[in-house]
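Slide 14.
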Amino acid sequence: MTEELDAETLEFAHRMFDLARDGATTELAGYVDAGLPVNLTNEKGDSLLILAAYHAHPETVAALLARGADYSRVNDRGQTALAAAVFRSSGEAVRALLTAGADPAGGNPSAMDTAEFFDLPEMLTLLRGA
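Slide 15: predicted structure.
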């Protein structure tokens, strides 16, 4: 049985995803601390962590990781937060994800595949050091 979400709940969820995209770390962390599921995903399977990583917000990535965000979760396209951070060449976010335990070979394309495909030698160095 699928429950339909009301307009107010959907609007709130969209706002939470926007906070992750915008790097509104303090506000988003406050909502998670108040009970927002840290692994909330949108209709594309993008988690708050994936969105924060893709939009190169390392402080938000770190805050979500500190609150238990699943760094191994993949979206509907098989992408991970680590691959997103690599794509954006966000070294600080990559380091935070690696420190948390993210696998450079996880996902499809993996973070390693992404760094190689887009010729990102700095990201390859970070990933190989993991």
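Speaker note: The chain has eight helices and no strands.
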